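Me: Here is a favour to ask of a fellow structure person. Could you put it straight underneath, so I can go through it closely?

Assistant:
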Amino acid sequence: MRTEEDLRNAFDHLADSAPDPARILTAPEHTPVRRRRTPLALGVVAATAAVAIAVPTLISHDKQPPVQAAPRPADEAWQDRLSLPLSANLIYDSRAFGHRSQGLILDGGNTRTTCVVNTYAKGVFDARTIPAGSPRVKINSTLGYVAALADPLSPAVKAKVVAWEPAPGTWTTSYCKVKGEVDPAKATEIARLVNTSPQRLPAPYRVGYLPAGLTVTSLSVNPQGDSTSEPPNNFIAAIGSAEDQTSVPQNPDGPVMVSAGGPVQIAYFTGSAAATRLPKDAERISINGRTGYLGSDGRATVLVINGDGFQVRIELGGTVPNERAELIKIANGLELAPSATDTSSWFDATTAIP
């Protein structure tokens, strides 16, 4: 099992590579839900624990018609390029998706195993960071390396990381730590299981409106219910400027993951995580026939929508003028999937997420 110091080091390292204009995607200040799971920050913004909050009975008349999503081309960034079968003693801990890279963390629980796997878009990973003379290793049909690169759990030091090139210019890395020791053999075992062919990424909502100049810069997705004891199917879209999409360093030295979640986000929580804390001084409003709660949480303006087994939480942290009206427009523009637990009913993220 990872120590708290290990996790803190990993999160700091991963967050350093995240889109960060004016620190727009720094760690959120609201209270996270249940326990802090690995923020694939991976910066997954967990829902907050259920807390009884007094809500005024005032009914807002700010009803607006649903905002229709304009047709958009498919965004290939929102595909799953890291899929692998897991053994009984490993679970998906967190997954993150960006326009330049994708990462996941695997956790072995009582086996004290942690593995970090990343894949990079063409031209992002600089193979020149692999030291000359690094041992070669066969990864299926590819000849890769066991190289001394940045340790994702202790980024100030180097560690043995498996790096290979499944397609020209497109690199993937695998790192494992077992019982406190870096284990390149385990990393190699995991690497040989990885499928980097694009797979459909389900999204629980379709985004129809975002304020001018903003877009989704990264995603964080909790694993499915059959592979973890955590609440299934949590889905967080981090929002920033279009420039944020390409702000990840071009040539990362070893495993680096992207941030997803923060004070500017659209989050979808299920299971017990759906009972998150409501905004302070919440005002009840109607959003497409559902009850919404509009208020504040720290420095962020927040709109929460409750549904059958899920909660949507939209936050704007001082990024746009007239946040109240913009939050209502974003909420009215969301098309929600019919089921919170059946991901086959969810949308294809390539066309649902801008």
